[in-house]
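Write out the 3D structure for:
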Amino acid sequence: MSAQAGEKPDKNKPDGRVKIVNASVILPSRVIEGATILIEQGRIVAVGTDLTTPFEGARVIDAAGRYAAPGFIDVHCHGGGGYDFSDGTVEAMLRAAEMHAQHGTTLIYPTTASCSNETLFRLFDTYRKATVQNRSGAAFGGIHIEGGYLSQEMKGGQDPRYIKNPTPEDYNAILAAGGDLIARWTFAPELPGSEGLIEELARRGIQMSMGHTSALYEEAVAAYDAGMSSITHFYSMTSTVTRRNALRYAGVLEAGYLLDGLYVETIGDGIHVPEPLLQLIWKVKGPDRIVGVTDAMRGAGMPDGPTVLGSIDDGVPAIIEDGVAKLPDRSAFAGSVCTTDRVVRNYVTKTGATLPEAVQIMTLTPARLMKIDDRKGSIAPGKDADIVLFDDGINVSLTMIGGRVVYGK
């Protein structure tokens, strides 16, 4: 059976043998043109230009010279396609995941905002149900909690009613309800009680990120030493140089630049972080420590016009224009409407990154951050067959997850 990249895929086809031919395969360091990828039972078994392995009965996909990249991994996303993960319905989670798959995302970490514990617990239940039903969208990698334990001064669009200091009673109740669903947690490390939270999350192997924070440089260093390995949406709600009693102090931004091992998230829409700052981040951190994210809200993939930031029931009115969501009075941003293909495109066009480098920040680097690079993040034998085909303009034509095509046009 042969299928061109432009044909409608069979989304319910069971895993088996798949052979992608005539592909320009993007590896971390280079591109191999005219290559073949052999896939069996959802895993890559071989990649190369002179494969002689018999592969009888394989479904053949002709890439027709298109690029074949590892599937994009988005560790920070609130929704898309007119839906938000905080809407609290299975349909919202599935439709948002489907929209992002159309832009090359194969693994997504549904992200919360500051809310009541009751709302958070409902999201856990919805996530469990949606995971079972998710057949045509980006796979769910776990929940990213962004909210609750944040700096009031750096809350941004977070609901101030639900901002609080961490206490063992509170975070242990959340951890008990969420179990192993919680993969990441963004919080402000300077808050009273954060040391205990860091210790508990480190014990559980949950990735921790500094965000919405007023921390001084020294506090950021201490948090990094204790196990916080990244900074959430670098430059957005991130402390920088301040004066206290006439003295000047560095902040979390400076820690991001000076601590070589610290990963930095960047919203890659080219708007939240404008081109000169993207270039500065690229120059200092490079592809091994930059994690591209969308931080998308429900407006991602939607046309210009009215939208809502947050849940559909009690969210904040917003408007989409100029490639971003804004408050109706245009006084501030109201969220990102970015997609992962746009992140890769912007890094190529705005920073001077090579295509393999730009792809890395959406694939291998986030996989390393989340400690899943043994099976995700690159096209290599033994890894999951999460693969995206796109053209020179990084327009996605096919998305494959675990050897199964979930999107093609």
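Residues 1-14 have pLDDT under 50 and may be disordered.
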